[in-house]
Amino acid sequence: MPFIRSFHINSSKTHPFPFNIPAVKFAKDISIENGITIFVGDNGCGKSTLLESIALHCNLPLIGGFISNNPGFEAARLLQPFVELKWQRQTKNGFFFRAEDFSDFIDGVEKEKMKINLDLYDLKGQVDDDIIKRMAEGMNHSLREMRKNYGDNMQAYSHGEAYIKILQMRIGDKGIYLLDEPEAALSPLKQLSLMSLILELLKGKNAQFILATHSPILMGLPGAALYQVTDDGMEQVDFKETDHYRITKTFLDDPGYYLRYL
């Protein structure tokens, strides 16, 4: 059973940004009653803005904070007065996750570690190395938070493995989970691992997933409601009817068909 039944952007404005992007213009009484809803479309169509707006309206957290005070979500904040959600049942559980936020978080941990090591450099030779290491780790807030939430060995994982590990740790059996282009961090095999994780959690009927993706693999999630966003509208389609599937299949069947024109 889903938490959110539908969403609607109640505005007739067609300019300026973000009111002029297709996903915002055509977001009228969009049903998301399935356990999985997927938005697809070309770059710039606004599918990520839709997810950001829903996440902000639900006050869902990011991996490193909240959308409400993140400078990168101005479009979602501008749309808030116009966002309407119809609930089947309400929850405050869940999160919004972008691959780029994950990368920024891991990079931030590394940068903080380097800065602290430089700050403690003058103690080298005067204090035991093991004590300096413990001091550095004690000063590294990001590292402590990562270990508390995800375990001691996150930095030992590959990028894709760490991404899946975080999702496994953060996704519970009751909540709304919005994933923006998760394939950016995942190989095709790891995308199948994500599919397996999602399908397993949906068995409990207490999780709802909303994705924006370019991946034909993720578009094939069984039972998903798939909306394709174009300049002309937002239409529910089968994944084999999407441009992403058609172009990918044509290329894999005959790469020369496209390469001869490049």
Q: Give me the CATH fold name of the domain at 4-98 and 172-259.
A: Rossmann fold
Give the strand tally.
11
Which CATH C-level class of the domain at 4-98 and 172-259 is it? Alpha Beta
The helix content, as a percent range, equals 40-55%
Give the assembly state of these chains.
single chain
> Poorly predicted ranges (pLDDT <50, ≥5 residues)?
none
Terminal CA distance reads: 47 Å
Structural class call reads: alpha/beta
Mass-distribution shape: globular
H/E element order = EHEEHEEHEEHHHHEHEHEEHH
Radius of gyration equals: 21 Å
Sheet with the most strands?
A: 6 strands, mixed
What is the average of the pLDDT values?
Answer: 84
Would you identify the CATH architecture of the domain at 4-98 and 172-259? 3-Layer(aba) Sandwich
Strand order of the largest sheet: 7-8-9-3-10-11
List the total number of helices.
Answer: 11
Strand content: 15-25%
Q: Can you characterise this structure?
A:
- With 262 residues, the protein is of the alpha/beta class.
- The chain has a domain at 4-98 and 172-259: 3-Layer(aba) Sandwich (Rossmann fold).
- 42% of the residues lie in helices and 19% in strands.
- The protein is built from eleven helices and eleven strands.
- The chain has helices at 22-25, 47-57, 74-79, 99-119, 129-139, 141-150, 159-170, 188-202, 216-219, 243-253, 255-259, and strands at 4-9, 30-31, 36-41, 61-62, 65-66, 83-87, 94-98, 175-180, 207-212, 225-230, 233-236.
- A six-stranded mixed β-sheet has the order 7-8-9-3-10-11, sandwiched between helices.
